Amino acid sequence: MLHLQNYSNFILQNITLDISSHLAILGDNGAGKSTLGRVLCGLIKSDKVFISYPPMYSQRVNLNQIAFRDRAKSINYIPAKLDIYDKHITMREYLELSNIRGMDSEPIIRDLKIDHLMAKTHTSLGEASLVLMASALIHGAKYTIFDEPTANLDPKRTIQIFKLLQNDTTLKHKIIITHDLNLAHRLGYDILYLQEGKIIFQDTCEAFFESDNLKTIFGDAIIKQEGFYRVNI
Amino acid sequence: MMKTFWILLTLLLALVSLFVGQIELDVANLLDRSSMDYRIVVELRLPRAVGAFLVGGVLALSGMLFQSIFRNALASPYTLGVASGASFGVAVAIVWGYATLSYLFGFLGAISTLLIHLLFSMRVRYYDKDSMLLIGIAMSFFYSAGLMVVLYMSNLQQNYAIVRFTMGSLDIAKQDVWALAMSALAILALTKHYQKDIQLMLISYDYALLKGVNSAKSSTIILSIVSVAMGVVVSIVGPIGFVGLTIPHIIQRIYKQSIDKLTLPIFYYGGLFLVVCDTLSRTLHGGANIPIGVVTSIIGVPIFVYLIIKR
Q1: ipTM of the predicted structure?
Q2: Cβ(B56)–Cβ(B271) under 8 Å?
Q3: What is the topology classification, in CATH, of domain B26-310?
Q4: A223 CB within 8 Å of a chain B CB
C-alpha cells in the first residue's frame, strides 16, 4: 500500500492518502494533480510518503529511507511528454534504461508494434505516447503513475492507449492523472478529485459518476449523453 | 571504415610531429642511442607530444562531462571557475616569489574553488546545477579581477612570467607526464564507471531518479574528480581554452551518437588536436613558439563554426 501522510506544500494542503488499488486522479487545472504524482514518486522530495507490503500493512517504510534502486522498483512516474536532452539517444536506448529488472523487453516492444521506432531519435507525439507506455511496462514498478497519458492525442491513439491501460495485467497498481472523464469512467478505477490543493472527493468510480456528485463538482459544465460525458460548450 | 581510416591518418600525423621542429633531424641517427637526434626525440619531443596528447584528452573529456552534467552546450572545464582559480593561484605564487611551487599553488587554487562549490551545495538549500553554473562563472570573473591586481602589483619580470603562463604552454617536462597520465587515467576510468548514470542524466535528471540512480551524488563525484584533474592540468600547462568546449561538439556532429558512447573518440581526437596544434605552434613562427592557446583557437574556431552552420 502507498501512503501519503498529512502532506502540504506550496499547492497541496494536508493530503492524507492510502492507495491500494488502481486509481484515477482528476481535478481542475492547477489543482495539484501532477504535483501530487511527483510527490508520490519522489521527484518532489518529502518525508511523508510511505510504502507497506502485504500482509503487514502496519509496517510502513519511508520512501526517503530506502535505497534509490529499491524505490525505483516500487514506484515509477510516466510524464506526459517524452523529454530527452541528448538528441542522439535512440528509443531503444531510452527503453533499455527503463529495464531495471533485467527482463526481456522485446515481447513488449513487439506487442506495442513499435519495433520500427527503436532506431529513431525523434518521434511524433503519438509515437512518443507508445514509447512511454512501453517504458512503464518494461520498468514494471509496483506503482506506476501516468501523468495525462492521453493528453494531446488524436482519437485513434487515445483509444489505443486506453486499451493498453485496460488490458494490461502486469502493472499491479496504475495511478492515472487525467482530465478525460470518459477515460476515467471506462477504466472504472477508484477516483480522487482535487480542487485547489485539497481532496474533495475520494470514492469508487460509480459514486463519482452519480449525477448529483457530478453536479456538485462540475455544475453545468459536464452533461451526460448516451453513456458518455461531454463538456457542455 | 572511414573512421578507422581517420584514426590511422591522424595517428600518422602525430608520429610525424616528432620529426618536425626547429632542429632538423637525421632519421638515420635515431637508431643510435647516443646521438643528439635520438635524445631530442626521446628526451624532449616524445614527452612533449605524449603530454600534449594527455592534456588534450583530459580537456576534451572534461568538457564532455561538464556539458552532460550541466545539460548545457556552453559548459566547459572553465565554467565552474576551477581553471581560473588555478591560474590565479599560479600568479600569486609567481608574485610572492614561490615560482618553484607554482604547481602547488595552481592546484590549491583549483581545489579551493571546488570546495567552495561543495560547501555551498551542502549548506545552501537551493544550490542546483544552474546556481552552480552561474556562481562558477561569477567566480571566474572574480579570479580574473584578482589576476589583474596581481599583475598590477608585480614587477616586469614577474609580469612576463604570469602573462606567459596565462597564454598556456606545452613545455612539458618528463616528470610532469606521469601526473598528466594519472589525471587522464582517472578521468577515463571515471567516465567508464559512470557511463550509465551519465546516459540517464542525458535523458533527464527525473528519469535518472526514477530508474534508481542518485544523480546528485554521482554528478558531485564526477565534478570533483574532473576538477582535481583540471587542477593538475592547468598548473602544468596553464589555461588552454577551447579544446574542452568544442571537441565534444565536433565529435558528436561527426559520429551522430549520444555523447556517453563517444568517450574514446573525444579523448583521442582531443589529444590529437592538441598534438597537431602544438606541432604548428613550434614550427610556424621560426624562432619562437606561438602560444598554444592562439593556435588552438585559430585552427579550431573555423572548424567549429563550419560544423555548426553546416548541419
Answers
A1: 0.92
A2: yes
A3: ABC transporter involved in vitamin B12 uptake, BtuC (1.10.3470)
A4: no
